[in-house]
Write a structure and sequence with these properties.
By secondary structure, the protein is an alpha+beta fold. It has an eight-stranded mixed β-sheet, covered by helices on one side. It is globular and about 45 Å long.
């Protein structure tokens, strides 16, 4: 099981345009629409950053890092064996791959990402 890279991070925001403008002016990141209520910045070097529209920033709506793995199924199984729980099952990301969310034994949410 390879988990050597952070492949994706997701930042919740109550104002997509304000966050998009801030991150562009600060870092030069250009976000593009990627579905309803979602903007995506793609480095085209194996890392993407998403801005997710939420009503308010609250527990459970925090920045999530997605670790690149060879097999989400194997990672979900091992996570459960180690005391974690599955928060979101393997889900397709059109034209990119798959993701899942787990909670570690103390409640932190971690993302898993698998390419096509």
């Amino acid at each position: 099981m390879a988990s050597d890279l952070i492949a994706h991070a997701e930042i919740p925001t109550t104002d997509l345009e304000k966050s998009k403008e801030f991150l562009f002016k600060l870092f030069g990141w250009e976000f593009k629409s990627f579905g309803k209520g979602y903007l995506l910045f793609n480095t085209h070097k194996g890392f993407t950053l998403g801005l997710k529209k939420v009503e308010k920033i609250s527990t459970g709506e925090t920045t999530i890092f997605h670790i690149k793995v060879n097999s989400i199924e194997e990672s979900l199984k091992k996570s459960k064996e180690l005391g974690g729980e599955i928060y979101r099952e393997k889900t397709i990301i059109p034209a990119m791959g798959f993701y899942a969310l787990i909670k570690d034994p103390v409640g932190n949410t971690l993302g898993l990402y698998q390419t096509n």
